[in-house]
Amino acid sequence: MNAPLTGIRVIEFCRGAAGAYCGMLLADMGADVIMVDDPVDDISNEYQSTIGESAQVGLRRNKRSVALDLLTLEGRSLAHTLVRGADVVIECLPPGTLARAGLGYDALLAVQPHLVYVSISAFGQDGPRSVPQPGVPALEALRGMLGAVPSGAEPPRDLPIADLAAGLYAAFSVSAALVAAKQQGVGVHIDVPMLGATLAIAALRAGDAGAEAAHRAGLVPAAAMAGSEAGDAAQVDAELSAVTRQRRALADAAGHGKVSPLAVPLPGEGERFGGPSAPWPTFRARDGYFGMDLDVQTHWEAICALVHRVDLLDDPRFSSARERARHQAALRDVLEAVFVLDDRDVWLARLVAVGVPCTEISTYSRVLSDPQVAHMGWVRPMVLPSGETTHTIVSPVRLNGQSPVTRLDPPAPGAHTGDIIAELDAELDAGPGASEVPVDISVRTSSS
């Protein structure tokens, strides 16, 4: 039973860590995961990834690889043949990429009716951000929102939270969909947006700050937030801010609240930031932090020219993305010596002008204000056991375009004890085999 997904075949069409991580999790559970690689791709060359090379290669474990050129008729034909014998397809590409190659969900469903097809993207398959914007970093809204400092004054560690969160949500959703496919004989299209997945896990950390952020973003009415009259919006703001400030002060006094909950200082690093890879590290300007791409060689050359340090191009420590990752601390010191001379917005404007993808450090409130969040409807009301109404981030996953239904609000301890015991008694009275019949608890418990 150490390989419960034995017999399940997964076809992986992915560029990026999120889809590869999902595929690796399924492969670890015994699935036969076949990666569709580009014939001219070489993962040892310069690459665009949110993680380092060794980690990127590690995501290929327990998988097999086939090289297909999907731009050719032969490549697409072979891909269709692969899918005919598959149970799952994972795609982690800009929305519509595979569909234009004749490998979208609707097209593949015709050859494999019970196919579980999961699409992982930055913002989801539809909505105002679903279409990639040239020159705009795909996940700019995510930068720093897991940091405990609401102003974005401190940078996050370069851990690919969005990729990992989306990969986990995708793998879990695929496992659940496989059960339904076996029972009902029909497939499903699963939409996993990295933005929604990251918001969902960040909500566990945000607490009152997240509730305040949702209110300020216009997603939650003031009256619903505080249980007061709508005209008391200013008082609500003041009360929420006071509570949040008090809790943050307590956290700071206890030695917490300074970094992301997932950020653990490396030995000798103190509270310096930066992960094991060079892509999208954060740098300190005069008035705050910003992130930029150091992975692509042309971007690195543009940066060196911008800061008038073309001599760095001859420095062996920074000759490639791999070397820049290995010497990131030294690289940060060299660049920050220049960056601290001007404000963040000045540097962002200069970087955009020379074609280097960059972004300011975002905040939870700013992310919730993004129109994609409202389009997806991720912020929903929730009634606490005390009777108070608050708001939460619901499941970001969509199944055939529909979000899972939140059937029950959080119960008080033991709230359903009577109902559950009654159900157990009824099953015992019915005799052997009765437990094999599914019991719809949701209907009965919703009124208790």
Automatic annotation (TrEMBL):
The keyword Nucleus does not apply. Keywords: Transferase. It holds the Pfam family CoA_transf_3. Gene3D superfamilies: Crotonobetainyl-coa:carnitine coa-transferase, domain 1 (3.40.50.10540), formyl-coa transferase, domain 3 (3.30.1540.10). Signal peptide: none annotated. GO terms for molecular function: CoA-transferase activity. This is Carnitine dehydratase.
